[in-house]
User: Fold these one by one.
Assistant:
Number 1:
Amino acid sequence: MTLAEWCVLGALLLYLVTIGSIKWIRFRGFDNSRPRDPAFYEDAIAQRALGAHQNGIETFPFFAFAVLLAEFRGSPQRLIDELAVLFLIVRIAYVLTYLGNRPTLRSILWSIGFAINLAIFFMPMLKRFLPV
């Protein structure tokens, strides 16, 4: 497996850990028979964790597809790997700023992550201009 493919797994685990950690920290208040109970998410940190989790679910398919498309179309693997690692770092920072209630920085990080995804996605079209 390539480093980029491991980053796809990392992105998946990140959005699971984001909500799982809040459920684990507040395990006495979490009722697994009612996992979407709005009362559990009344606390501000739980709301932000849920928001970060949902955003991770939203961004994951595009990231995974972009990585696989770039790899299958023969784009430079080293560049795919570097951008995938950068995306994962940006997503970790995004989650931390979401949990830390830093909306402006969070939006900037989201935009950077989206730009990285676009770069990976369009890499096959531009591969003749990229270093090998």
Number 2:
Amino acid sequence: MLNDIYNKRIIELAGNIPRLGRLSDPDATATAHSKLCGSTVKVDLKMNGDTVTDFAHDVKACALGQASSSIMASHVVGSTASELRELRETVRKMLKEDGAPPEGKWEEIKFLEPVRDYKARHASTLLTFDAVVDAIGQIEAKAKQPAAAQG
């Protein structure tokens, strides 16, 4: 039932999103958009080496996109690039392949597990994860460029 995916915890998460706004000097900005529902998440990311040091986001999404963005914002600072790539893959598998939800600091993602039965909602749920991984890729690509090319 659709009410299963909009459970009490999802509504609480969606209504209390931390780190809203934009960073003044991000290392990268990435936007993820769902054509199906029109939801958009734009993230600003700062990293020191492999670790996220600051994060902000602009979330124009349904309750599911808001809830997943809320979880991301609560735990992203201090996370590593490899951890965040693995997280995106874990959430994708949870939704699309009946995989288990993540554990540890990301365990609240389990509240999004009922979304697996609603394919049309997968894209909005994954937006924040896709945007963060995109931003990490941008930062890593810049780091590999010769200093003269970085301007």
Number 3:
Amino acid sequence: MSTPPLISIVDDDGSVRAAINNLLKSRGYIVHTFVSAEEFLRSPHLNGTSCVIADVQMSIMSGLDLLTHMRAQGYSAPFIFITAFPDDRVRARALSAGAICFLAKPFAGRHLIRCLDTALDKYRGGASA
């Protein structure tokens, strides 16, 4: 049996990290949480991450900056963005930069799971025929 995907959650809000962590672990995912983009970039889990779920607005390095940095370094893990401050311009930038989904907090767990399923399918290269 294959190892469950590793999901990295990057959000400066502890309650959001805990809620997503609990949801994803209950569905069998391996989950690591990070309080900042910088902490994630320094972690030993960077290379093994199958999907990043990141807050858009964080101090020092935003979620969009994290995505840009990771792509410039050659990392292709899909991104799902979450935000308490939805803005159409930021949403458009995130999606054009390659984000799979852009969810406004609070969001239903089923919406995050649907985005995660799409992201992981894309990361694996889609379903084989």
Number 4:
Amino acid sequence: MANAFFSDLLATISERGRTLLRRGDASDTRQDADGLIELCDALLSGRGEASGTAMARDVLDHYRDLDAAGRRAFFAALVRDFGPDREKLAQTVEKWRTQPSDEDASDLHFASEPRRQELIRRLNRAPGGTGDLVAMRADLLGMMNGHTDLAALDRDVVHLLSSWFNRGFLVLRRIDWSTPANILEKIIRYEAVHEISDWDDLRRRIDPVDRRCYAFFHPALVDEPLIFVEVALTETIPGAIAPLLAVDREPVPIERARTAVFYSISNTQRGLGGISFGSFLIKQVVEELRRELPKLDTFVTLSPVPGFMPWLKQDKDLPLSDEDREVLKHLEEPKWLENAELTAQLRGVIEPLAAYYFLKARTPKGRLIDSVARFHLGNGARLERVNWLGDLSPKGLRESAGVMVNYLYRLDDIEKNHEAYANDGTVVASSAVKKLLKNEGRRLLDMRLS
């Protein structure tokens, strides 16, 4: 109710301000990128709250009407023409050099700030402005596509969004069958790991006694989940996703549940990419579950490995014998799963390769290849187990040859594991995973000697 009242109040102020603007300037603003830049200059030079709110709304509306070329021209102009005031910055730098002081240091900070940051702040004051800026940043990411000319603008947008979407503003809400339908529909739409086919499928994931779903919300994006996690309560650590999602499965009695399985984590806003909520989400969900169910003692994921098959196909330096390479070619056959002997041969090659993929393989910049692995290991989890044929869906077979992994969140070790990964790139793994890698080394050595 409070959010709705405040939004209505802002909309009223904005509309009155827009009416004043129309009376003051009968000429139509140009609808191209240059006209939008003129509006931005006017917004930065204005001081009135009502007129500024109205003008910010006009800027965002005009942006929405631009085509892709116009939006890119607008972004380029923000980089080119809305940086720091160079003359003012030079004077402040010289003052600092002549006689450094804390006050001068503060002046230097403010003088170095690009004008576009203040522009973005003012745009955020418009009714619905936060959501529009998140959508604008999604456009920006799509246009960057490896190019660096818009990187400065993206850094400024991320800097501000990170402040507006910090943990203090996020609200954790449990999603269940009593949640409003408009939010449930978004859960179906945004699910990015294991597709939700229909409303019955959604109900099986959030309604039974052994299922939970939680999402983070932000006050400026009413009823818009930012990220959500689906949780299965089980007796032991699972190694495959199908039994968790089976239509005819028997729910686990809550008194027998000892393990919380995070089997799907989905970010919903592309424009917030690079602004991490996931670690906060997992930690708070763990706290919620422990309060509700004190007998839970294991917190683990059942995670996909989306980078594994692309790595197998592109990496020329895989630790493989010629015989192993021939075995891997069978993955291209549509019915390889139906051949038990072939499946066993593939397992003997792929499991050690998966261990190598996590423990040894890196990008040219020295990072782990798999984005899911980077997320969980960076949050302090331990690579617990490699699960052969954990995901037999078409997507699972295409992305990882069916491989899934468990990341274990042992609460006493999270900080230590995070520091090891963040400082040294160390992947903390169980002895079972490390053994797979040792077996790979012995197997290749035996082949070379034979």
